[in-house]
Amino acid sequence: MERPAWAPRSIDISVPSVSRIYDYYLGGSHNFEVDREAARKVMEYLPGLPKTMQANRAFLRRAVRFAAAEGITQFLDIGSGIPTFGNVHEVARAAAPEARVVYVDHDPVAVAHSQAVLQGNERADVIAADLRKPQEILASPRLQHLIDLNRPVALLLVAILHFVEDADDPYAAVAELREALAPGSLLILTHASYEGMPLPAERAEGAVDVYKDIRNPLIMRSRDDVARFFEGYDMVEPGLVPLPLWRPESAPEDEDPFAFSGLAGVGRSA
Asked: What residues are paired with 103 via a beta bridge?
């Protein structure tokens, strides 16, 4: 397999990547055949998954605009993935020209592409780091250069926590980030769940098995388990809901049934 110029030499292009699979779902071009093969296997069980991913991105854009309308101009996007249409810094800057954004990802391709997209941008940057190690993120000079932790921050954990196993204690990582952010900060979160899927959980388990096979387990948590991530936050209306139902800008009944396969919410710290 020929290595394209955009692929860092450090990555093994024979191994599927969650970020590149996600890029494929969204119609992106920064993925390899090994990623597309894994994605197609997942879609044998969840054929409407691209619609779920589109609904996820649409929620992200609505939530960023909401944060900007609430006066928040600092955004920390952990698990940001490969840049695609409607990136956080683009949406935030359109709503608040002074907005500052720090992206975080541990995928080398995602980081490399973010660096290319953000070249020359003095109000946005990217950090190569892992959600499971919050202190490394918080101590990064790149973050500290752009983000004032004494002022409210919008923390985005969009479609990432379902890739963190319970053994790695994602609840502790989210709590540690909450404690480091100023009162009035927002947690913007989405999470995969069997709830809302337009097919039986037994069928969806086939997709979960594909992610397990590529050594990126997909953890399908219940509504109650997802709600636990918001401990210490007051939920913003309408609460924790299927993706299209969070402050929709178009009629939810017009959405594809697969758009409802996932939970979304925003919380504000006291």
From this structure: 77, 126
Identify the CA nearest to 232 among candidates 165, 185, 167. 185
> Could you report the per-residue pLDDT of 42-95, keeping only the tens digit for each?
999 999 999 999 999 999 999 999 999 999 999 999 999 988 878 999 999 999
Structural tokens at position 245:
């139902």
Which residue has tokens 């969009």? Answer: 158
Taking the C-alpha atoms of residue 221 and residue 191, their distance in angstroms, rounded to an integer, is 8
Q: How far is it, in rounded angstroms, from Cα 3 to Cα 85?
A: 24
d(CA 138, CA 133): 9
Task: For residue 203, report the phi and psi dihedrals to the nearest 5 degrees.
Answer: -70, -45
Instruction: For CA atoms 252, 255, 257, 259, give the dihedral sign.
Output: negative
As given in the structure block, the two tokens for residue 260 are: 């409802």
Distance CA 24, CA 39 (A): 8
Q: Are 83 and 91 in contact (CB under 8 A)?
A: no
